[in-house]
Amino acid sequence: MPYPAGHSSEVRQKIVLSARRLFNRHGFDNVSLDRIMSGAGLTRGGFYSYFKSKSDLYAEVLSCFFTDPQWKNCWEGVEVDLSSSEVGPQVVRAYLSRQHFEDVENSCPMIALPTDVGRSSQNAKRAFETVFSAMVTVLERGMAESEVQVERRNKAEAIAAMCVGGMVVARAMNDRALADELREGCMEVALALGGWQRAQAPGGVSRQRSA
Questions:
Q1: What is the pLDDT of residues 152-182, one digit of tens each?
Q2: How far apart are CA 199 and CA 81, in angstroms?
Q3: Which of 132, 138, 139, 206 has a 20 to 30 A CA-CA distance from 154?
Q4: Does residue 144 surpass a pLDDT of 50?
């Protein structure tokens, strides 16, 4: 019997989600194709029907809710509405939230994989740039239109880098209290730079998208 419509895209998505969780937790070099396919409930033999190589899969894994409308990961708390005029502060609070910090496997790959990207193919680097640029665009859209466009862009780039870099450094710390302090500090400065008032309790904010 032929597979039902949409079967191929569903299987492909299962592979991407399995790879994202494993890459985020263990890094690109430490995850085998067998492990990725097992995590998706599939056998290795079917991998090459969907991807040419592990590197091609890696490039597709490098996405986040800024670029992937099918993003299913939930960081419980405040929902990020990408069409809202308040999307800028929502993104900052969600990205630097305690929930995102703790949910390593389901976090934005820009946090877990920048070192791997630096050693990887041009295709992976372009994928990383696409996600980062999309984040910058979303942040810029949430800023006051009265500002000069180039100033909004510069601020949005700085805020995005602070969000990603702040989480990278916080995740690398052994002292949880210091990591939380750093994350909170980055959130305060990022919100101030964007001209957004803080209206949520520290650390307890996040994003939720229904599965």
A1: 999 999 999 999 999 999 999 999 999 999 9
A2: 16
A3: 206
A4: yes
pLDDT band at 209, cuts 50/70/90? very low
Q: 73 and 206 in contact (C-beta within 8 Å)? A: no
pLDDT reported for residue 201: 43
Residues 6+ apart with CB under 8 A from 188: 198
Contacts (Cβ under 8 Å, ≥6 apart) of 110: 62, 64, 128, 131, 132, 135, 164
Dihedral angle of Cα 49, 51, 52, 53, to the nearest 10 degrees:
-130
